[in-house]
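Notes from the 1:1 (GR / supervisor)

We went over the backlog. Supervisor wanted to see one worked example end to end before approving the batch request, so GR pasted a single chain during the call. The sequence is below; no edits were made to it. Supervisor asked that the structure be written out right there so they could see what the output format looks like.
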Amino acid sequence: MKLLKRLNFFLIAVCLLVFALTTTITGAIYRKVLFDNTYQTALGALKQMEYNFSEKRSVFQETVVNLLCGESLENLDAQQDVTSVYAYEPINAFNKDALAVMAYTDEISSILYLNRAGILIGTDGKTVWRESAGETLLLMLEGIEQGVSFQGGFSSALFYENKGYLGKEPENYISVVAPYQPIRGDQGKGYLIVNIKEAAFRSIFFAAMEEDAGDIYIVDFSGNVLSSTSEEQIGGRYRLADDMKNHEDAFYIIDGEAYVIYYAMPEMGWSIVWEKPVNSFYEQANLLHRILICFVLFSLMIILISYGIYAKMQLKPLHILVRAMEDIGKGHYGIRIEEKVDGEIGNVIESFNRMSRDIEVLTGENVRITNEKRTLQLLALQEQMSPHFVLNALNTIKWMAMLAREENIVNMVIALSRIIHAFKNTNAFGTIGEEIDFIKNYILVMNYRYGDVIHMHYQVDPQLEQVSIPIFFIQPLVENSLKHGFASTNCKGDIYIDVSRKEERIFIRVSDNGSGMDPEEAEKLNRKLKGTNQMPVFETGGVGLMNIAKRMWIYYGEKSDIRIRNNAECGISVELTIPYSDGKEME
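Structure output shown during the call:
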């Protein structure tokens, strides 16, 4: 269950992460799509606006051209003193032409002519001008060169400021200004000014805009606002004018909380700027975001429920496997899971069944080895010659031999006593040094028996004398040399014992110069020695080679080795190999 909970937690965490990334990326993509789609849609409306502006400009431009070419303007410009009574006729003729134009359209507020003397002459249909122009108007007209141009920033205040006329409501103009200078004139120039109501251009915006579409601006090449749905911006400088310089193509940008579309009209020298609140896009994106959240949460719930049911079905074999492993931990070996499952879990269950079977076999083998080890210790105890009367008798013989001054008998009794004391040792292990001392006493007794014909040669590393080995581990090899090596040989009776160490292994070699062994018989015996680990203790044949091999396997396992070799000249060698680290401290 803990595994299922962790899997569920991991799945939920991953789903939430994917959900967060998906909604964030989807929201960003959707906003970008909204921006692009709005931009593409707006381009159509802006192109229509451009066409409408161009048509309206053409009409006004044609009107100005007609006035410039008219005889009344030429006569008015030729009048030196417009304040004289003789100027009445040319002024009246000009005003008459102006009124005829204004009668044709109500989008023109006034038509004026600023002569070379700085006098304004003209009419708005109700008021007639024949007075000096204000300083502000003169400054605005100074930079205008030849040709007809549409100027922004003009307002009724520029023309009514000296008239004291209070009934005129303030209004903004987009003024058509045309410098006028007759071909023969050389005394400066005048300016024809046609003041068009800014609302005439603004009406084009509202015809193309939807409700709550934002603000639209007409900006000239200098960055000044000529017309706008936001009247307070008219005549001022557009805030993004510097960023839009040198742009001849349409584009859009996000400026703070405003979505800004720029559309250039290079033929007119104007640009249309459409601003829309970014929040309007975010509201649509947020609506989609909420819908997406509901959909993803619903999908997540369906996924988790389906996953929980499926995971429970798939993890059922794992639960069975866990319970089986717990039973093995309690000592119930040999358990087998009969559940048939495909895939990786099925492979795990098969591996568990093999492991359970192997543990059962190994446990039985360990019990068998433990029982055999106890049996060996029992045999060792049974073979001890422990009756105290034997030792007491030997002690009496020793004193009698000493009184009779029989030194050989004394030495033999002492050696035999030490041998019997060694048999009384109930420990399974002794040191290499103790084993060598036992062999020396054993050979002393045997030499009395064979007539002092056995010569021992010891080469033992002093550092290894305190290393623990099983008792009676080397002595049976010496005994085999006496029994089998010198029974029918003419060679000198020499026995060699070598004990050395190489890295983490101890090598014990017992060799003689006896009659040796047939090679085939030696190989057969080696194979038999290798198989002692599979033989019960009662089949090992006493305390000889097989007994040694069996004890080596019990105490050292595969880290040990025993091998018989024929010497080059005569005799055989028995080589034992045991681990150094395991051989130092044994119970």
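Supervisor's comment: Confidence is low (pLDDT under 50) at residues 384-389, 537-543, 582-587.
Batch request approved.
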